[in-house]
Amino acid sequence: MPTTKKKHKRKVDVVVVSDIHLGTYGSRAKELLNYLKTIEPKILILNGDIIDIWQFKKSYFPKPHMKVIKYITSLVTKGTEVYYITGNHDEMLRKFVGFQIGNFQLVNKLVLELDGKKAWFFHGDVFDVTMQHSKWLAKLGGVGYDLLIMINTLVNWISEKILGRGRISFSKKIKNSVKSAVKHINNFEDTAADIAFLNEYDYVICGHIHQPQHRTIVNDKNQSVEYLNSGDWIENLTALEYHKKKWKIYHYQEDEIAQKLNPTDHDHENDLGKADLKNKDLFQQLMQEMNVIDKKLQP
C-alpha cells in the first residue's frame, strides 16, 4: 500500500500571531490553520486578542475556530514553546496570568533574548487611550467593527464568486484615509519605541492596532529600535517570523503553498456558519485541551 508523502514544513525560530479574534464572524481561522500547518516553529507567541471574549454573548464559536486551538495544543505537546500574551479582547484571562503547563505559559508581557538581542513582546492595548478611559466605548466599537466585517464578508463573496474580482477591505480603506486614525497609529508606534529605548530593548513587538509593520525608529539620541506589529487574522492575514537573526512580515496572500492546502482538512462551514459552542461549552473544551497537554507530558 503506497504511503502518503509527508509535507515539508518550514522551520522558523519564532512566530508571532495576534488579533485572531476567534469567536467572531470575521476571524479567518481556516487560513490561519493553513499557515500553521506549513511551519515548524521553535517558539510560537500568541500576542493577544486570540479568543474574543468580548463577543461571547453571540454564542458563536464554529468548529474551525476550535480546530485552531486544538492544533496549537498539538504544537505544545510536540515541543514548541507557546506563550499566550493577554490582550484587551481576552482580558478575562489576565486573572490566570502565571499559569504554566509544559511548554505553555500565560503572560501579560514577555522579554526574550534572541541571538544576543532583547525582544519585548506585549499586546499594546495599554497605550490605547480609549481602552484606558472608556472601555464601554471600545467594546461598542468592537461590535461595530464586527458588523462591518460581516458586511464586508458578504461583499467579498459577491466580488470573488460572482464578479470575479479581488477582495475589498472597508476598514483598511477607512483607517488609511482618516487622518486621525493614521495619527493614532503613528503615536502608538512612537510610544512603544520610547519605552523600548528606556529599557534598552532591541526589538519591540506589538499587535492590537491591526496594522502590520516593520520599521526602524531612531530617537534624538541616535538610539534605534526595531518596531514590529504582527497585524491580524481578520483582514491583513499576517504574522511575524524571526529566523536566522532576521525578522520579516509573513503575508498569507503571498503564500501559495498554504493557500493550496485542501480546505476539507478543516471544515465545510463558511464564515457565517451557525454557532457550535456556547460560553460554558467553550471553556469546558479549553480545559479539556489543557488536560490533554498535561497527560501527554506526564512520564
From TrEMBL:
GO terms for molecular function: hydrolase activity. PANTHER family: BLL8164 PROTEIN, UDP-2,3-DIACYLGLUCOSAMINE HYDROLASE-RELATED. Its EC number is 3.6.1.54. It is an enzyme of class 3 (hydrolase). Keywords: Cell inner membrane, Cell membrane, Hydrolase, Manganese, Membrane, Metal-binding. CDD domains: MPP_YbbF-LpxH. This is UDP-2,3-diacylglucosamine diphosphatase. It comes from the Bacteria. Pfam families: Metallophos. Residues 14-212 form the Calcineurin-like phosphoesterase domain. It comes from Wenyingzhuangia gilva. The keyword Metal-binding applies. InterPro entries: Calcineurin-like_PHP (IPR004843), LpxH-like (IPR043461), Metallo-depent_PP-like (IPR029052).
